[in-house]
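Budget justification note: compute hours in this period were largely spent on complex prediction jobs such as the one shown. Inputs:
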Amino acid sequence: MCPVPNGDAEVGRLAGSAGGPARAAVVGTGMIGGSVLLRLRDAGLDVAGWDPDPATRRYAREQGFACPDTVEEAVADRDFVFLCGPLPSLPGMLSRVAAATDEDCVLTDVGSTKAALAAFADTRGVGHRFVPGHPMAGADRAGVASASPALLDRAAWVLCPDPAGVVAFRRLAPLIIDVFRARLVPMSPTQHDTVVALSSHVPHLLAGALAGAVQEAPLRDAVLALAAGSFRDGSRVAGTPAERTANMLLSNRERVLEELTRVTDYLDKLAGAVRAGDAEALTSRYRAAAAARTVLAGRNFASRERAFPVAGDADAEVAYLWELGAAGGYLSGCRVDAGTVSYIAHLPADAGPV
Amino acid sequence: MCPVPNGDAEVGRLAGSAGGPARAAVVGTGMIGGSVLLRLRDAGLDVAGWDPDPATRRYAREQGFACPDTVEEAVADRDFVFLCGPLPSLPGMLSRVAAATDEDCVLTDVGSTKAALAAFADTRGVGHRFVPGHPMAGADRAGVASASPALLDRAAWVLCPDPAGVVAFRRLAPLIIDVFRARLVPMSPTQHDTVVALSSHVPHLLAGALAGAVQEAPLRDAVLALAAGSFRDGSRVAGTPAERTANMLLSNRERVLEELTRVTDYLDKLAGAVRAGDAEALTSRYRAAAAARTVLAGRNFASRERAFPVAGDADAEVAYLWELGAAGGYLSGCRVDAGTVSYIAHLPADAGPV
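Corresponding output:
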């Protein structure tokens, strides 16, 4: 784990239920979980970690973290628990942590798909205090040695509020915004999974196909010797740990396959224009594609404040939040004060009103 | 155009046929051509440029370059001419330049495909002094203002020697190696076109398909807001000028479509494993793909010298050179001395003997 950068979290706003600093636990202290742990400690929270791997627990203790031998001890009496283990472990761990924590303990996770886990939480009766989450950060690495508080700094961080869990969302959102300086993107679990299929999962499929095909090609050595930037960039995430990529893709199967057809349809049109020698069609399709890159290069946002009564219509509040995320917007503030919850929202300046 | 970095070219080895410094001309002084021009001047060559655009010619003159109004004046009495215009202009320009230059003037180009132009040069009877070339460098930009001598520094630079043109190759190779500090990759034109289909052209298709599909997706704004590194990298070259990408793909149609099927076959296998929920197959395919990335990250080369009699079997010399390129190797030296041509060759340490 690396040194902690300057944190500008307002720790006073993150007081725990017992009056002292908020108490948080991180379950699974690999690359992402370790980074969360470092950042929470930097922000002045009372933190504990746990990992199924004894060596990782030992390492965390050497870094000065409380890291008991059982997950139950680690999460007892905590205000917030972050589930940061591998995707397939999350349902089982969510049940275990839910059973070991109080009703006012907010649970969240950092897994790369959300719909299945959100549904699981509902069936287990913890949907009202589990807020599915997904920070958009990562690296071609894994393991606690790759953890760094900078990894999550200013990341886009999806949280999935639900009418039944809006109170938990309002408690977790300020922590995510303040501690991680995050752009908090509120979305429904299914919106999230559709969006990441295109923004992350399908790109992993394309990168794997490109690198895999070259690996099997007769002229492989010459191709790699002449690898242009286009190949290097296009195949980069094929170097990500294979199990993690497989877990990610399999956890979002239906949506990955559905969004993949969008991309292969466009690919077929490009290939058709190449086959037909149709320079005009090819150029116009590349111009359309370039428009997406222009948006990525920089977008103007308009900010506005939006308030809801704390005891009001949770459906309306959540509908507003989901719509904000679907329109490419994000939150930079969430404050509950005198019966009102106020959000500071940022929306692409060219989007319609939300 | 930007300032010139330190050049370590041995100008003495690049003497022109008239005894003074070698005389070179660059036809088409956009991003690549302008970069070639700057670098040649830095190495002490006597250079002239020409561009069909009067404003670009004016700009080159303001930078202190000789830049006459006609291409015929620019290339007259030159030892080397670099054709750096857009791909579709190259056949016409090759004919024009060939007619305006002497028999001992070596012609080369920097276009991104080679087989068609090499065949054209043969039909026009200039195959013996035209050496097809392709420096593997570029950027998401175009135009003379993007030219920079650093752009081509230490690039992999393909030249396509031919038995009929081996003398021209032996003259051009030292210039490319010394002036640009290039890793010179010798290949046949068809090998080159097959290799760049996978190392550059198909990656452009995948990037275009990814960015284009997202641009048309209902949740486009949310996808771009959550664009992970995988999307950013995977779509980067979709931001390249559309006409240039279209020209490049169309100039290598058959091979692009053929190599694309390798990639879509691998993609189908990945998607099939996702559909079947087969984590093992998915993981093992990603492991294979990651092997290509490991090679990219760094490869050991073994160097050896190889000599041929200048008046010997050109077929054997060229066969050796083509094989070197196909095996992922490159040249860092080419010297003609006392009836012998000596190459310093570098071959991946894990490759068989060449």
